Amino acid sequence: MTLRVVEWSTGTVGRHAIEGIDRHPDLELVGVWVSDPAKVGKDAGRLAGLDRDLGVLATNDRQALLDLKPDAIVHTAMTDDRIFEAITDLTDFVRAGINVVSSGPVLLQFPYGVVPDNVVDPIVDAAKAGGASLHVNGIDPGFANDVLPLAMTSLSRRIDEVRCSEIADYSTYYQPVVNSQIFGFGQPMDVTPMLLNPGVLSMAWGSVVRQIAAGLDLTLDEPLVERIEEVAADRDYDTVSGKIPKGTRAALHFQVVGQVSGVDRVVLEHYTRNHPDQCPEWPKPTNGDGCYRVDITGDPVLNVEFGHHGEDGDHNVSGMVVTAMRLVNAVPAVVAAEPGLVTALDLPLVTGRGLVAGQDSTGADAAD
What we know:
Elements lengths: L2 E6 L5 H10 L3 E7 L10 H4 L10 E2 L2 H6 L4 E4 L7 H13 L3 E4 L14 H14 L2 E4 L10 H6 L5 E12 L6 H7 L17 H16 L9 E8 L4 E3 L2 E3 L4 E12 L2 E11 L16 E10 L2 E6 L7 H22 L3 E2 L27
Parallel strand pairs: 1-2, 1-4, 2-3, 4-5, 5-6, 6-15, 7-12
Antiparallel strand pairs: 7-13, 8-11, 9-10, 11-12, 13-14
Helix pairs in contact: 1-9, 4-5
């Protein structure tokens, strides 16, 4: 059965989601929401950077899209700077009986123990009342630090620590709000950006730590531990998101740690540079400018480095692609799930079924 899908936003992730929906054999794009009035009336294919029309025109008429009664919304709108407004949007969607896969707010990836019940319960109640499901995911928080590490632990005889790392150069990552206001890159070292206020890291990535702990049946010490290392620019740097003057914040290493009896057991960390020459003592990807790494110490010791890059070689562009496609490919499983808030622990194996080049949706060679 083909599922009718609305794409909600056409930004750095949404444009890739549109192409992904169009390519997916089980999905049909029926609507596109945009916040920019200049995009209203434009064809989705053009907004996605395709060389063809898809026959779906973008709109900022929210109710018109809900009235389409789609099976699902792929929601990729910016949420980092409007968390509670985004939660209201998602709650309204599922209350209307529309299943949702969303790239944020990331704290909903696994909100239990991260945000109060009075935030989570209304979402769950609305979803159950509407008979719909909500799944928040992507790549990080998402596949790189939920499905991947938990699948790896199935090979373990004893687990001492699970460590999930992002190691990346953000100089080609076009997210001015995220990089400047949230991470604080290019800001004076004595100015505390949103991300580095006490407790914010645990809210943003605590869902990762707590979901891994839940998957391993661990009871963590409270609260989670936050560790931060900030590095000032040794010279002026230019990035696609803006300039980073000498002496301002230019690199960041942080950890969100789940401990048991004072011992680190689950660690989420980021090593974020804005130039490949920065912080040579920090880990670097084996290949390319960015990767995710999972290290499980115990018996046996397990290590996986997961890299990605686009056809043009850039890992930040492909980061948007893998975020979009983790959502798009999960749509059928989320639609089939029981109503409520669905985490990676609740879903069956999600694959790229029907996406092999040269194959039609039945798996037969398209040339036959």
